[in-house]
Input
Amino acid sequence: MNKITMELQADHLIREALREDISSEDVSTNAVMKEYVKGQVDLICKQDGIIAGLDVFRRVFELLDDKTEAEFFCEDGDAVEQGQLMGRVTGDIRVLLSGERVALNYLQRMSGIATYTRSVADLLKGSRTKLLDTRKTTPNMRIFEKYAVRVGGGYNHRYNLSDGVLLKDNHIGAAGSVSKAVELAKEYAPFVRKIEIEVENLDMVKEAVEAGADIIMLDNMTPDEMKEAVRIIDGRAETECSGNVTKENIARLTEIGVDYISSGALTHSAPILDISMKNLHAIG
Output
C-alpha cells in the first residue's frame, strides 16, 4: 500500500482503531514503563501462509511515534513459514507495547485474507476466469481487506456503491423488470460506466442480453444452467458467476467458461494468519 494511499485513505482508520484500544491511556504499559527506553521486538510467523499488510503494521507504530523503525525480512505477497522471523520493530518500548495489538490485528487479518485468496486463486490456474472479491467486508476495513485480496492473487470487484452499476434482484424489483432496470441505468449512468445485472434463471439471461447489459452475473444457478447461459450470451456480454462460492466448491465452476467468479468468502470467511511479536528487550 503506497504512502499516498496510506495517508489519504488509511491513516484516519488506523487512528480510530488506536483510539478504540487506548481511550485515555495504556494503564498496563504506563505502570511498568515510566519513561522512555529504547527497545526492539521480533515479528514472528506462527503459521504457514501469505503475508499482507506489512506497511499497515508499520504505520500503526509510526502514528504513535514517527521515530519508530520497522525492518522487514519479507514483503507482501511472500509465502511465510511457521517460526520464520519476518522483521523487527525498534523504538520507545511504550510505543511497542501500546501499538502491538492493533498492529497485529491488521497484519493477521490481512494475511489471513491473502492466504485464503491464494488458495482459491490457485484452483483457477490454467483457466481464463478471474477471481473477484465482493463488498462483503468488515465495516471500516474494506481498503485493507480488498488490498489483501490483490496480494493473494485475486482481483477487486467495485470498491463501493459509487464505483459502478450493479443491478441486483431488489433493484430489478424496484424498476419492474430486467429490461427496465438496464434501460434506466443507461439513461442515468455516465457512458464510461459498465452496467452489470444479476440474473437467476435463463429467461432473465435472455432479457439481460437483449437489453444490452455489459456484464451478466449468474447468481446461484446450477453449473448446467450457467453453461447454457454462457452459450446464450455468446460473447455479447461479459459473464460472472456468484453465490456461496468457496474453496471447497469452486472446482465445479472452472469449466463453465465465465469471465469472472466472485466470492464473498475471500473477505468474510478467511481465518486470520497467526502472527506474534516476541522477545521484547531494551537496547542501548
User: Anything to note?
Assistant: The radius of gyration is 23 Å. The mean pLDDT is 96.
